Amino acid sequence: MQNSLENKITSYQLLCILTGTAVGIGLISLPNEVTQIAKQNGWISVIIGGVYPLYLVYIACILQKKFPDKNILQLSRQFLGTFLGNFLNLIFMSNFVLYTTAVASGLTILLTTFIMYFMVPVRLLIFIVFLGAISSYSGLKPLASINELIFIFTIVVSLISLVALGKGKLINVLPIFDLNTKLLLRGSIESCFSYGGTEIIFLFYPLLSDKENFRSCALKGVLFIVILYSSLTFLTVYYCGIDLVKKSFWAVLIAAKSIEIPIINNFRFIFMFLWSIVNFKTISNNYFASVFILQDLFKRSSIKKLSVIIYPLIILISSTYLNEESRRTFLKFIIPKYTLFNIAYLTIVCCMALIKKDGLNEKK
Amino acid sequence: MKKNKFLIIIPLLVIVFSFFITGIKDSDVVENLEIVAGIGSDIEYETPDIISYSAPLSVYIFGDTSENDENIRVSSAIRRGVGGTLGKTRENRQSLSDKKSIFGFEKVCVISEDSAVCGIGPVIDILFRNPQLNDTGYFVICKCKAEDMLSHKVKGYPSSSDFIEGLLKNEYNYSFFPKDTKITDLYTSLYVEGINPVVPYIEIIDDNIKVSGMALFKESRMVAKSSFDDSKWLNLMGNDKGRGIVSLQKTAKNYADFYAYSSKKVYVNKIGGKLHFTINLRLKGDIITNTYFKDLSKNKDVKKTFENEIEEKVRKNCCSIINKMKTEYRTDCIGLGQYAAAKYGRWSNTDWNKEVLNSNIDINVKASIENWGRGSFEK
Amino acid sequence: MTYFYFEVVCIIFLNKLKLLGVILMDNFSINGNIQRIISGLGDTETVITRSFEIGYKLPIQAVLIYVNSLADKESINRNILNPLMLHTDDNLYLSSNLCSTICKKYITSSNTLIEKDIAQAIFALKRGDTVLIIEHISEFIIIDTRDGKYRQISEPLNEYAVRGSREGFVENLETNVSLIRRIIKHPDLTIENFTLGKYTQTDIKLIYIDSIADEKIMKNIRDRLAVIDVDSITGVGIVEQYIEDHPCSLFPQCFATERPDIVINDLMEGRAVILCQGTPYALVVPALFTEFFQAIEDYYERSVLSSLIRILRLIAVILVITLPAAYLSFIKFNAELIPIQFLLPLVSTRRGLLLTPLIEILSMEMVVEFLREGGLRLPGKIGQTLSLVGGFIIGDAALRARLVSPATLVVVGTAVIGTFVIPNYDMSLSIRIVRFPMIILADIFGIVGIAAGWYLILLHLFSMNSFGVQYLSFKRNDLKDIFIRAQLWNMDERPEAIPNKNKIRHGGSMKKFRRKH
What global pTM score does this model have? Predict the structure, then answer.
């Protein structure tokens, strides 16, 4: 029986936050990116790309065992010095800000193209980021609970795509073992954007109420994401064929649209409805992560104040790439650099943690 | 508390304010919009170089509502739009209509033959690009102008688009007609490696709209039309899970009809640089009428003969179609290229059309009778 | 003779004590005491003082004080005046234990107290007890003669159950407590008293089961009750507003009920009940969101039926909130999502209407709300007729005048009827109100507005705390009782959402029984 007045989350909630931050708008555009390079074996590339979140979870497990009560921000300050640590934390924060703006602008574009033709995109953007700001204003516990609930929505939405199995053609996915390893590896780099957001476990693992379950829940989360992404890529290619995937911006929606329900004319809007709710949650998670890091840097302000202050900034950044083409180009350019930064930053902190702890033992 | 109030009021004001600044893109309520039942595409050659596109729409018109709203008279009218590009036709159309038209309900998309010969690429591009347009509408080629087809009055339906939709929806019950002739199916067959689109062809004969064959495409241009009888065998080879009647006829009065469900499997091999396709067809079906074979249900040998004759007939017809395909149509209209691409690699810059036309194609048929019905009314 | 001397000695002795500064009641001036008591009560007209004499030989002066209409005169006559005036022995004389002698031998009332504190006397008088003051004695007797005119236990007016009991709470606090005490016979039932309100000094009781309820939560509730410092408390609804966490929220955080069986079930889960003198409602704290959608009938009927009805309620709630908003967004923005068979009749009936869709829906909703509120206030039959006839006439007339379309009336009507499915009155009011922001959001943003509206509602619910417990939570074990109602023998653990001391509900005998058979 946990008292709800403490600021702790259960391991199941951490799992939902982990998957919730990663599964966002990246899911719908994932097949496009990957099949450009790896053709019909894109789903194998996606599985290979799952190495990145797995590596992050591995580092997180090590850090959690050694320092169960300190999150990555405090550790980087401890090992790298205050100034350097804060600077690197700031870059880490800009990672989350980037994800917030990318998902927000992606969702806006998606919605204004498919459902809300009548709406000016900037207005919708203001509203969507407002939802993220309000969620972050409420704090961690409501956010964790909402992640729990919307996790179920995500499962429902992804199960729906299974229906495409009935309508597709197996030969779209063949030949499977025409393996060109170099192409597969290049394709897996494209999937980095979709796996981004899993870094959030580094911020929240000290807040777990049952710490011994961290490893299993983090692994389960990553496994869920990898299976979801690869199966969705597989199903999209299965139904559409790689030629059609190349032509459309959002190939998953074509596959989802193949479902015909008697009364409803157009399955698209149910999918969009559920998908918008899932993405509100992703934006809120990333927004909260940015505010959380900012609050760690500026200890005097509260999370509530910072949520409000950062709001115009996020809108400004999102509105600069409000069309699909420039958004994709920009993200393709900047995401690999951020991924490399994350890997380097986290590996350095982990190595120092291992060394320093051993050093302490030696001294004793 | 005062600080808190400020923290809430100012952002709220900013939000509300920015709302009203960012402009309005507005739309109207549904009853003030025109509902489109079917769209068409026509072409006129003013000179060999200058083409004028025409995109007629069939829209629903509502009769005057009386005191009791039971009898709502719905009929249709045609809105023409002519222009140098497909986009300009929209402008021209709006200048003739009193309401904005709303897409999303079109039941059919009718392309005239001339337009198809010129190329259906631009039409499909417009349909794909605009998410509002209905992807589950049916796509047909018609012999006359699309406008005439859409304005043809059919008794009992407000617009001919409704009739054409029903026509295509139910055609798959016979003639091995493909079940999916919607626009979405065209997305997966146009500009796809190894497949050429095959689209139903309708025309007006004796004041009735009827399906009179299939239009065969090479990439995005229509190159040939197969007749109703030929298209039966074409569809049998091109589609999986079709239904149709195969008949054996001895004399005008003695014949047997076999209503078959078909399934196919394609194997591909490379022998000496040439592709070698093997199409295995499997027909399972019911006997509908039989005044030809005596003791069909009782005698095993008679049954065997019947099945063999069916197989022979199907094989002969299919082979003649394949010859026609190689000589007359000159396009891969049964979709064999995709099997080759699946085996030998995609996006490898091979012209699968040419390869298929140069290949050897074998057909094996297996027929079996499942159902004899209630009994046999023989003498 | 010796007794007489003994009495004189007593008087001198008591006088000496008074000189020593021991403050007892003023012996020699019985009137002074009476004056002090009456001034503590305030209003002199309703206070009645009856002086009489006890005993024959040496009559002892005594005064009976009570408040008219709060005390039961029959009881006073029968139990106090009759024995003391008519049936006393001669052995009575002034002594220090006169009071206890009288109580033990002559006063035939079932409850008597001997007190010295005037504040206690005033407290008791306000509740309908009688105070007996005897001259020269510093103690006085408080006799229980409470009986005002109160309503009898009757069927609860607003909560009806087909198979449940027909008893409901009444205004009298003692009766309400007795209704609970009758059913929970375990000694761990704890009752705490509070007196709140400067002028009304209302009695409030906090009841919980000590071995089940969590101490931190009980302490939380106790602290909140103790802090209340207001002029008057006229009902339990006012107490609710002073102790709840989020007074600005739309959703109720305390569960108000008229039925004792609901209260008892809740006590078993580790909650506490607040009863207030003068209100026939009990307040159960802490309350969770999901329990407002559970009716007591669900537990008395078969589990499969109850599960289906619960699912129906869930569908009703979702429809009530979403349907008008979805209808509005479809006809205004995304007409292509309506199936074509519905669209053609819809368009033909909507042509030439006067009002825009938003105003149409809002005006019809407003008319329905007028009818409903009006029907509540009018007496009995008129109210019902008004709602029915008014609905028909106005709806039909609006159709004919081409103000609204039939589809709108169907949508609004369904949404209205859907709110009746919710068993708790407070929650159905809240759900009614939640519809309106949804409609406005849908008018601005279309379907995405509905998605955003749901997201905001969920966020709001998740961020609410009810007395230290999370307002909305879906714990895996509790799901047995939220969307469906599992078999009773399966629900052998208390719900986890509210912390409690003792997790196991019953001994698992049912499972053993089922396994054997």
Answer: 0.86
